[in-house]
Design a protein that fits this description.
The complex is a heterodimer of chains A (396) and B (347). Chain A is α+β, with helices and mostly antiparallel strands and 396 residues long. Chain A contains 15 helices and 10 strands. In chain A, the strands form 4 sheets. In chain A, strands 3-4-5 form a 3-stranded antiparallel β-sheet. In chain A, strand 1 and strand 2 form a beta hairpin. Chain A starts with 14 loop residues before the first strand and ends with a helix. Chain B folds into 2 domains: 70 residues; 268 residues, no CATH class. The longest helix of chain B is centred in the first third of the chain and has 34 residues. Helix content of chain B is 67%, strand content 0%. The chains are: A alpha+beta (396), B mainly alpha (347).
Chain lengths: 396, 347
């Protein structure tokens, strides 16, 4: 049985001696501190056990599991594959549309269902709007971590407009149960296209303002440049994905490299960190990759809105979902945090035999001890913030 | 001061009354600045703050104070009880003692000692002791971090403050804050930040250096008060609440009050030294003993507002960057200013 990494019980803090110029010796000792489950800046219930030598971090061990809700076990007792969708929502609650889409895609590929064109376009629009909303949370809370309280409120104003769009469509602001296997639960309301176009027009200048306020602020740059550098090979070895991987200079985006839906028909560019303000792969790179990605999302939304075909969104929803026995499939999509994958095993009954969710935040978080060593506690907060974890996805 | 002395023959009672005047001022000012901070912060963040307690939330500070007063007094079990209780008192005493030498008006200064500015710097160090005590006595590793960081920060930023004061003393020739203010009487052209009441040739040469010195004094005062961008000791996103973590109720209110009182103190010191204190910028128009109080408080309040504005705009500096700014940026620049001002005055 795998043991979670923890400090051994006979761990004694390293003691040291500093000789001063007058000949005396000062005794030093490392400290073991808990950045506990309740902490204003660990983005959720995450426990970080740090061994510090003064302010320098010698070792950092994350303990997770405080938000474990047995999501995967619940899925085995559903009476219908469609019933898993609300559970998938609640995994990564900041980015629910992409979660639903990943699971629906997995089930559709297993059952070999073809969805109408209109459904694909609407799914893309919803997922990209959700990506903007999720990155807005990431950027806003990152500002708070570094001490700037104001950008958080500005990003939440913009996020409200996106949530208005979602509420108009499916009635919910955060957890939608919208993308069903085979289609969608509701069609777009008549005012959606117009309001979405208004939002795109409104948001572009706000991005520039956010960049001026936070990203290019001298103090913010000083705090995040050259901090928490994640080299390319380490990132690939740890299987990180999403903006964190792209921030380290790896040009890998599942929407283009393992394409699904209609992404190959739209024109957009994956954003890669170039190390403008420090080294490639530092916190600033990850942050600016998210900012640039939001702009690309706007492009995608514009093109999708322009090319929206007519159709029935509920036509392909199957009445009974009963895959063949011993069918299994792994499907991965690009969620706001990285590669979100669902591995479904079926035993021929109406409920899945096993659903395994590969959460990107879980894998991205595993790299934290590696990049936090040698930095200060103030840096640890910023590094954890730049990984952009959502504990719902880490713990499921 | 003299007419009160004629009313009450007892000198002790008179001095006690006069020394309680700044306390009254602090309490009234704390309520005003609480409201201001709340509203300014809200409008910077594109929202409105409290609107329901009183018209547009005017009664909210009173509600806050009442709430803090009636909270349970919790002392952690393993905390060092004596130090824990003493810490907020010492921090407040350090702040309040500085009010003794602030020249509120030409007829009122708490204590007209000849070492006013020196006394200010000395007493400001008491606050450091208070914060260190709070950090240590809380028996909490995070508080300890906050306390130690704060001690390092405040000690290193006292040096730029002291050097800036020396520069002013070189120009005005006295450490007594009342004399410094009288020196700048007579209109905006006589303010030290524009070179002082000296002949034009000297003023033009002095002006860039005094402006830089004033700016550096302002920056190091913000650091002294532990405000963003220098608020690592109470960095809410890192250390929960820094040295404040274990404090609640009235003890927390003491720290809070002393922080706001400190805000005013450092702004007032900057105003008294550089911007003419209680003298009116128009020369004789709107000047006089009572107008003096208005000018002094108004000018200091503008800088309090600027500090609040800066707090809600900028991120915070990391500990080593903070030290870097103090020792490698502010102090060298101040030495340049010191030498230049000395040279110009001698020539």
């Amino acid at each position: 049985m795998l043991q979670p990494p923890t400090l051994p019980t006979n761990y004694t803090v390293k003691q040291g001696h500093i000789k001063t110029s007058t000949g005396k010796t000062i005794r030093t000792e490392e400290m073991i501190i808990n950045m506990g489950p309740q902490h204003p800046s660990t983005h959720g219930v995450l426990r970080l056990e740090i061994v510090v030598d003064g302010e320098i971090i010698v070792d950092c061990i994350p303990h997770i599991g405080y938000l474990h809700r047995c999501f995967e076990k619940h899925c085995e007792h559903m009476t219908n594959y469609q019933q898993v969708i609300p559970y998938a929502d609640r995994m990564d609650y900041c980015s629910a549309m992409t979660n639903e889409w990943a699971f629906a895609l997995a089930a559709e590929r297993m059952l070999k269902i073809e969805v109408p064109e209109r459904v694909e376009y609407i799914r893309v629009i919803m997922a990209e709007l959700q990506r903007i909303a999720s990155h807005l949370i990431a950027v806003g809370t990152y500002g708070i971590d570094s001490g700037a309280f104001t950008p958080f409120l500005y990003t939440f104003i913009d996020r409200e407009k996106i949530l208005d769009l979602f509420e108009m469509t499916c009635g919910a602001r955060l957890l939608y149960n919208y993308i069903w296997i085979g289609g969608l639960s509701h069609d777009l309301p008549p005012k959606f296209v117009e309001q979405a176009k208004d939002f795109v027009r409104y948001f572009r200048p706000r991005l520039k303002m956010l960049n001026d306020l936070l990203s290019y602020n001298e103090i913010f740059v000083k705090r995040t440049a050259n901090v928490g550098v994640l080299p390319k090979d380490v990132a690939i070895n740890y299987a990180v994905s999403g903006p964190q991987l792209r921030g380290s200079g790896v040009n890998w985006d599942l929407r283009r490299d393992d394409p699904y839906s209609i992404y190959h028909k739209l024109e957009w560019e994956p954003q890669v960190g170039k190390g403008e303000m420090g080294t490639v792969g530092d916190c600033w790179d990850r942050h600016i990759v998210r900012m640039h990605e939001m702009e690309q999302c706007l492009n995608i939304i514009e093109q999708a809105l322009a090319g929206l075909p007519e159709g029935n969104v509920q036509a392909a929803i199957p009445k009974r979902i009963r895959p063949e026995k011993d069918a299994e499939i792994y499907v991965r999509t690009e969620s706001s945090r990285g590669e979100l994958g669902f591995y479904i095993v079926s035993d021929g009954t109406a409920s899945p035999f096993r659903v395994k969710a590969r959460g990107p935040a879980f894998v991205n978080l595993s790299v934290l001890p590696e990049i936090a060593k040698g930095g200060m506690i103030a840096d640890l907060v910023l590094i954890a913030g730049s990984i952009d974890i959502v504990l719902g996805e880490v713990d499921r | 001061m003299e007419f009160i002395q004629t009313l009450l023959a007892n000198e002790l009672v008179v001095s006690i009354l006069l020394s309680l005047l700044p306390l009254v001022f602090i309490i009234v000012y704390a309520l005003v600045v609480l409201y201001t901070e709340m509203k300014v912060a809200a409008h910077i963040q594109d929202r409105v703050a409290y609107m329901r307690t009183g018209w547009h939330g005017l009664l909210q500070p009173i509600a806050d104070m009442l709430k803090l007063l009636q909270k349970e007094d919790i002392i952690p079990d393993k905390a060092d009880k004596l130090l824990f209780r003493l810490a907020p008192i010492i921090a407040f005493v350090g702040t309040y003692a500085a009010y003794a030498v602030l020249p509120f008006s030409s007829i009122y200064i708490g204590s007209n000692i000849n070492l006013g500015a020196f006394f200010l710097v000395a007493v400001g160090s008491l606050v450091v002791v208070g914060i260190l005590m709070a950090g240590w006595a809380s028996n909490n590793k995070w508080s300890l971090f906050g306390g130690v960081r704060s001690a390092a920060q405040m000690i290193s930023y006292e040096i730029p403050t002291a050097i800036a004061i020396i520069i002013v003393v070189m120009i005005t020739g006295s450490l007594n804050l009342q004399d410094v203010t009288k020196f700048q009487d007579g209109g905006i052209g006589n303010w030290v930040v524009f070179g002082g009441p000296l002949p034009w040739s000297q003023k033009l040469m002095l002006m860039p250096f005094t402006i830089i010195t004033f700016f550096i004094l302002f920056v190091s005062s913000v650091a002294e008060v532990n405000r963003t961008p220098f608020d690592l000791p109470e960095a809410e996103s890192e250390l929960v609440q820094g040295f404040n973590t274990e404090y609640s109720g009235m003890r927390f209110a003491m720290f809070y009050l002393s922080e706001y009182a400190n805000l005013f103190t450092v702004s007032a010191v900057g105003v008294a030294l550089f911007l003419g204190g209680w003298s009116s910028p128009f020369g004789t128009f709107m000047s006089g003993p009572v107008w003096g109080i208005f000018w002094f408080v108004a000018k200091a309040y503008i800088f309090v507002l600027i500090q609040i504005w800066v707090r809600w705009t900028l991120p915070r500096l990391r500990v080593d960057q903070l030290m870097y700014v103090s020792w490698k940026v502010l102090i060298p620049w101040l030495f340049v200013c010191l030498l230049s001002v000395g040279l110009i005055l001698v020539l």
